[in-house]
Design goal:
By secondary structure, the protein is mainly α. The chain has helices at about 20-35, 35-40, 45-60, 70-80, 85, 95-105, 110-125, 130-135, 155-160; strands spanning about 5, 10, 165-170, 175. The strands form two sheets. Strands 1-2 form a two-stranded antiparallel ribbon. Helix 1 (about 20-35) runs antiparallel to helix 3 (about 45-60) and helix 1 runs parallel beside helix 4 (about 70-80). The termini are far apart.
Length: about 180
Amino acid sequence: MECFKYLGSMLTNDRRCTCEIKSRIAISKAAFNKKRTLLTSTLDLKLRKNVKCCIWGITLYGAETWTTRAVDQKHLESFEMCSRRMEKISWNDHVRNEEVLLRVKEQKNIVHEINKRKADWIGHILRRSCILQRVIEGKIKGGIEVTGRRGRRRRKLLDDLRGRRGHSFEGGNSKSH
């Protein structure tokens, strides 16, 4: 079996998060389309943003455990521009994304939100003494050993967080600078 859904998350043989991210984006787009008349109406922008928060909740479900690659971040950032649809701005209008975000008084922050959730979740896990902490720290080896793989070593959850600017994880303690 290539991939299957378990407790609302997509699990794949290669243990990458791309399938899960695309699935979450598709579910969120479907939710957006159900509320399209409300989101593209002449309602106050603040009310429309509140409805958009519900759609973001669908997208970011389980994002704490994602190891995002550059491709995944591009998918998430393009989904974040649903503000363009809220303002009824066509792609043919040649309005830059920055201009759209200024019109709706927002900033790009979906990737930042994911990184913040990851840092909060990993800090919570590393403060506890449980088996999940030992698995994340790599003290318990997994059952699948792949040797001779070509290319760069895959990023793991802690690698993803270590690469994040302003945070360090040493000896199981998380510190924010």
